[in-house]
Amino acid sequence: MMLIRLTQSILAAFCLVIAFSVAALAQESEAKTAWQNLRSTAASHGVVISSQGATDYGTSLVAQNVRVFLEDDPDDLLVHMPELRIEPRGTAIALVPSPEFTVTIRPSRRELRELTFTHDGEIVADVSDEQIAIDLLFDQMSARLTRSERRGEALSDSFEMSLEGFTSSLNALREGSADFTLGAETTRYDFSFDAGSARRPSPQSGDGTIAGLLVELSGRELDMLGDDEGMLRAAFDAGLAMRLVYSAQSVTGNSSQMIEGAQVDMTSSGGASEFVVDIRDGVFAAHTTAGAAQISGGMAGISGDVSFGGLGLHLGFPMLSSAEDQPLYLRFNLDDLIASEETLALAGAGDFAGEAVSLALEVSALGRLTEDMGPEFFEADEPPFDVTSVSLDRLLTRVGAAEFTGSGAFAFLGGMLASIDQEMPNGTGDFVFELIGGDALLTRLSALGVVPQDQQFFVRMMLNGLGRPVGEDHLRADVAIRPGGAVTVNGAPLPF
Question: Disulfide engineering: 266 pairs with which of 79, 297, 334, 350, CB 3.0-4.6 Å?
């Protein structure tokens, strides 16, 4: 948490000067006038920009000993630059901070952090009444923790972060459209904190590398958003659309921390990953995917590792009420999860070392919202949505050679809300479930003691009661649900 708060503070502090700079530099051609407008505009927003002087070179202006802080909370955040150069470039303005400057923050009244930034770039802003365009051009940028205190006492905390090939741009239009990108060819970090107290220390440390970091955010008709009733529908009718993309080509990391007096060390590495949120046409859609990854670690003399071949999660649903059904879906997959013998030995299943486990669940439905999403969406007595049908598109659990699968669909009579007070949903459904290699898996688990001997008979009875043999160690169950709550398995009523 400390690392997250520091990272957030770093980004907020670095963007502080940018935000108020571009707001003040609209259509200015003289550096001196731009500097004066910068300070007055910042002041109107509660931000003080002071300096010990400024040298006007005609084509540029250099302000000395620049300090930026919040007027109401001057101790919470302080940006100090030995120099800040302002250079008009046609309709644009270039802001060139000192190659090294500091940001001092107070996460709480008891704590103080000072970070020193170094860079080799500049900020170029082109601002008009209709558009704001900002480019952050820093091929090299780094930040390191140079001062850390708690209650006035120095701490041994450390933090360093560096970005190579860093670029960022923002383009915003008065009409409500905006596009933002941030990327770095290589991002490295290294930290060490003590998140505990003097009586119960909790040291945490770690380092890592992110290759090909990319963040993209775009939006249309963003000015339509607000708190008024019916705002969301009006915004979508006007063309509201938002998209967020976070991706990385690869990641590696190491961490160490104390948990209940025991040291836990972790090492991880992963391939390409992506997180996307897309909101448009009254529909929310999101997905996250990750390539092959491996995690290894140790605790109290016990070590092990886990790897997987791929991971995915997909989610989609409507955000506006409608008279017609709309699609909803949830899809999850975890491919080829493999644990080391040391890890499995903790559960007495070391014999399964090297065997892959795969999981998948894909569910879709047709339904509709009975009211638009908003602050009071779940405050009604009844669910604010109704479902006409549900489909189990895919169910998979695979352990080595054993595999359990399922698929099918169920249609509600009169919709889900008509069955909400009933013990069994009223409708028609048909599902097929298959188990391959289940008997062999049960035999192995019993031999390892994972399934006690006295429970084997009960488990086998259940399997044979619900499934019919269709091959060697292959069971199938055809499940039928009919109106009124009647359920049959392979044509016979449930045996319990």
Answer: 297
pLDDT tens-digit map of 291-318? 999 999 887 677 889 999 999 999 999 9
DSSP 120: S
Beta bridge partners of 114: 104, 147
Helix/strand/coil percent split, the chain, to 5: 15, 55, 25
Pull the structure tokens for residue 295: 């995690």
Q: What is the dihedral of CA 194, 199, 200, 204, to 10 degrees?
A: 10
Structure tokens at 224: 């339509």
- Give residue-wise pLDDT tens across range 174-229: 878 999 999 999 999 999 987 665 566 678 899 999 999 999 999 998 888 777 77
Query: Which of 397, 387, 278 has its CA nearest to residue 328?
Result: 387
Phi, psi of 335 (to 5 degrees): -105, 130
- Contact (CB, 8 A) for 120 and 99: yes
Q: Can you tell me the distance from the alpha carbon of 69 to that of 145, in angstroms, rounded to the nearest whole number? A: 19
Q: What single string gives the DSSP state of each residue in 66-97? A: EEEEESS-TTTEEEEEEEEEEEEETTEEEEEE
| Distance in angstroms (rounded) separating the CA atoms of residues 415 and 427 | 9
- C-beta neighbour count of 1 within 10 angstroms: 8
